[in-house]
Every structure is written in C-alpha cells, then in structure tokens.
Amino acid sequence: MTNIISALDKAFDSRVRLGIMSILSVNESADFNTMKQLMELTDGNLASHLKALENIGYIQSAKQFIGRKPNTRYMITESGKDSFKKHLDALEKLIK
C-alpha cells in the first residue's frame, strides 16, 4: 500500500488543482474566466492554484488581448500530462 500512496503527486492534493488539470487534459486550452466559472472559484483562489501548477511546469499560460480586454489561456504541458496520468493511475490502483 505504501508504494501506491507514494506514487500520488502532492501537487494534486487539492481538489482545485485536480479540477484544473482535468479541464486542461481534455481541452487544448482554457481561459481563466471559463475555469473560474466551471469550478465556481474566486479570482484569488484560482490564480494561486494556477500559479503553483505553472511554477512546477505542469501548465503554461499565454496572455493576449481580445478587443481591449486581457485574456489569459492555460495549456497543460507534456510534463503535466505525464504527471497527471501517473497520479490518476495511482488513484485507480489505490481504489482497487
């Protein structure tokens, strides 16, 4: 049982981070406001979790303007995809 638990990635301990990674793993990208609405989070709460995932290289961001409004899109990185898949595999083993 210890090996299964050690395979879990601490970066995904938070349900918010699980939600972010789930959204980004099935979409090419998602913008800040879309994720905020889907997960019903405050700006600050979402921003802090996005920054944490970006700092460890699991996601990346691209800033642009749509009209006069700033828009930040997030994409999952290859490292993020691999780590998230390993985490989900470990969860599945733990459940079984």
Order of strands, main sheet, comes to 1-3-2
Contiguous runs where pLDDT drops below 50 for at least 5 residues: none
Measured distance between first and last alpha carbons: 11 Å
Task: Describe the main β-sheet briefly.
Answer: 3 strands, antiparallel
Structural class: alpha+beta
- One letter per element, helices H and strands E, the order comes to HHEHHEEH
Number of helices: 5
Structure, explained:
The chain is 58% helix and 19% strand. With 96 residues, the chain is an alpha+beta fold. β2 and β3 (69-76) form a beta hairpin. 16% of the residues are buried. The mean pLDDT is 93.
Compact summary:
The protein is built from five helices and three strands.
List keywords for this structure.
alpha+beta; single chain; elongated; 58% helix; 3 strands; 96 residues; 5 helices
Helix-strand blueprint:
Layout: H1 2-6, H2 15-26, E1 30-31, H3 32-39, H4 43-55, E2 59-66, E3 69-76, H5 78-95
Antiparallel strand pairs: 1-3, 2-3
